[in-house]
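Exercise 7. Given the encoded structure of a 278-residue chain, write a plausible sequence.
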C-alpha cells in the first residue's frame, strides 16, 4: 500500500488484527454486568480511589486526544481511523465503569480537564502543548510518518496505564476491584494488540517513521491526557505506579518494550522510563 507522500507501509494482508471484528464487538455500557454492591463490604484505600479518579479522567479524555490525532495525516488512513472510532467508544465506557466503582465507594464527580492546581510546565513537554492548529500545520510538513508516531504513542500509553491498573489491584487487596480491572484490561488488551501491530509495521516500513518517532516520543506528556493535570496529581500517579522497587521494575519493563520497537533508540526508551520514575 503506497501512501500519498510515496512512503510505503506493509499491506493490510500483513496484519492479523481484524478491525471489522473489533468494530462489530466494541464494548458498550458495563453497568449491568459489574456488581458494585461488592464494594460496600470493603471500601477501597484512598490512594487507590485517587489513582482510579485519574485513570477515569485519562480514559474520558480520549476525544480530546483524538481531535489532535485526526488533524494530521492519520485521518487519511482508513484502517487506523476505523479502529480509533471504536477505540474511543470503548474508552468512554471504560471511564464510565470506573465511575461506577468510584460511586460505589462514595466518590462522585465527572471527569475534569484539570484539578485546579498549577499544571506541570516541563520544557521537555513543550512540543506536546501545541494546539490543534499548530499540530495541523506541522503535520502538513511531516506527512504519513506521523501515523507511526501515533500508533507507538498509543501503545506506550497502554503499557503505562496497564501498569497503574495492575498496581491498584495489588494495593487494594479487593476481590471486587480485581474482577473489575480484569474486565477492563481484557478490553484494553485488544487496544494494545492493534497499536503494537501497527507500530511495528509502520516503524519498520521507513527510516523516516522511526526518525520522527525518536524525535517525538521523548516529548510526550505521559500518560496521554495528563498534560492538563496538575503537577501534584501527575507526581502522585508516578509515585503510585512507578515508585519504589516494584514500580521501578514496572518502568523497566516498559523501557524494554519501547526499546524493542523497530528503529526506536535505547536512549529514547531510557528517557521515557526516567520521566516515569519519581
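Solution.
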Amino acid at each position: 500500500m503506497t501512501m500519498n507522500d510515496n512512503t510505503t507501509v506493509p499491506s493490510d494482508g500483513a496484519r492479523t488484527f481484524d478491525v471489522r471484528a473489533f468494530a462489530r464487538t466494541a464494548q458498550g455500557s458495563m453497568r449491568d454486568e459489574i456488581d458494585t454492591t461488592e464494594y460496600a463490604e470493603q471500601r477501597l484505600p484512598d490512594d487507590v480511589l485517587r489513582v482510579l479518579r485519574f485513570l477515569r479522567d485519562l480514559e474520558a479524555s480520549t476525544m480530546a486526544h483524538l481531535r489532535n490525532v485526526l488533524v494530521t495525516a492519520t485521518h487519511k488512513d482508513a484502517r487506523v481511523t476505523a479502529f480509533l472510532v471504536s477505540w474511543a467508544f470503548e474508552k468512554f465506557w471504560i471511564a464510565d465503569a470506573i465511575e461506577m466503582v468510584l460511586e460505589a465507594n462514595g466518590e462522585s464527580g465527572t471527569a475534569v480537564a484539570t484539578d485546579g492546581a498549577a499544571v506541570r510546565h516541563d520544557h521537555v513537554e513543550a512540543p506536546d502543548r501545541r494546539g490543534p492548529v499548530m499540530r495541523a500545520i506541522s503535520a502538513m510538513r511531516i506527512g504519513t510518518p506521523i501515523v507511526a508516531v501515533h500508533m507507538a504513542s498509543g501503545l506506550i500509553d497502554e503499557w503505562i496505564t496497564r501498569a497503574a491498573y495492575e498496581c491498584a489491584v495489588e494495593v487494594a487487596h479487593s476481590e471486587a476491584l480485581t474482577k473489575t480491572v480484569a474486565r477492563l484490561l481484557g478490553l484494553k488488551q485488544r487496544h494494545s494488540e492493534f497499536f503494537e501491530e501497527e507500530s511495528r509495521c509502520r516503524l519498520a516500513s521507513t527510516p523516516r517513521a522511526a526518525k520522527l518517532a525518536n524525535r517525538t516520543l521523548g516529548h510526550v506528556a505521559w500518560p496521554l491526557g495528563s498534560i492538563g493535570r496538575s503537577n501534584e496529581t501527575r507526581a502522585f500517579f508516578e509515585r503510585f505506579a512507578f515508585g519504589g522497587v516494584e514500580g521501578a521494575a514496572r518502568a523497566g519493563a516498559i523501557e524494554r518494550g519501547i526499546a524493542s520497537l523497530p528503529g526506536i533508540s535505547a536512549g529514547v526508551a531510557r528517557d521515557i522510563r526516567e520521566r516515569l520514575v519519581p
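Remark. The chain has one domain: 43-276. Students should compare their own answers with the one above.
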